[in-house]
Amino acid sequence: MLRFRFFLASAAFLLAAPGFAQRVAVLKFPELQKRLARPGDTTYVVNFWATWCGPCVQELPDFEKVRAAQAGQKVRFVLVSLDYASQLDKKVKPFVQKRGLKSEVLLLDETDPNTWLQRVDKKWSGSIPFTLIYNNQARKRATFEQPLTAAELTAELRKFL
Amino acid sequence: MKKLLPLLALCVVLLSSFALRPAAEGYKVGDKATDFKLKNVDGKVVSLADNKAAKGYIVVFTCNTCPFAQAYEDRILALDKKYAPLGYPVVAINPNDAASVPGDSYAAMQSRAKEHGYTFPYLQDETQQVARTFGATRTPHLYVLRRQGADFVVSYVGAIDDNSEDAKLVKTKYLDNAMTDIMAGKPAATSTTQAIGCGIKWKKKA
Fold it and tell me: A122 CB near a chain B CB, below 8 Å?
């Protein structure tokens, strides 16, 4: 009986395992910068957010919706969390799992925005949510220092595709 | 009605110019700040001209509800303690739309100021016009003003320091460094810094 219980427990764990597959990679700014500069004709939607940011959390489902709708296109969605790295296991990972976020999620582990903020975009004054849409091959770029609805994001993305 | 029409037209022009104005504009270092009249949590109206002894002000756009503003609250209290005796008191302004963020209502501001022992004015920017004029976009967002004759000149814009999470881990105190220069009558060596914060909750456009 005990063995059977153990079997059940392991089976449950294995079944649940795909839920853990959604990882949150932690990176420093130089790595993020490299990714932002990556050549190619893929259009990237990079959204800077945090679990503590109400309007960010509110717009994430819309971003997920648009990502799903554009799945056939050459578009990639990246959600860059600005939560403190110390909150990775406590807040960010549980959040990503609970919301079932399918976009790639990164956590930018930097303490001083003054050293990197303007290198993401000169126009960014530091409030989040902040969304950057770019296509390096087409040399196209748009930034939004405000929340976006699914309709707004779709309309903006259409200019890139 | 004839008299009203030009007035209406003016309103339309004014409203549209606000709507079209990009949020990123506002004061840069060297600009003269326009004085304002805002209601403090004690019910009195405060303006920059009131405090004749002030050599300047540390104006902080902040609020009750933003975790970043909360993380900096003790440091803002410490700033007032340090700089008010030197002639640069803190003036805190809450620009959030209380209709969308009840936690930033005037009553909530009153209780926060009381509970946390604010030693400085905590003003409600009800029309959000002061935040727009300054070009504040987030909380917290700091501006140091220095008195020059009858004017208040923007002398520093940005962050308090380089670590919002933990004051003990701060390596560079941006504001302190700037204040040292400003109080010595020099332009701040680093007069603009960038920081992350909660976007100001603007009123929904009608």
Answer: no
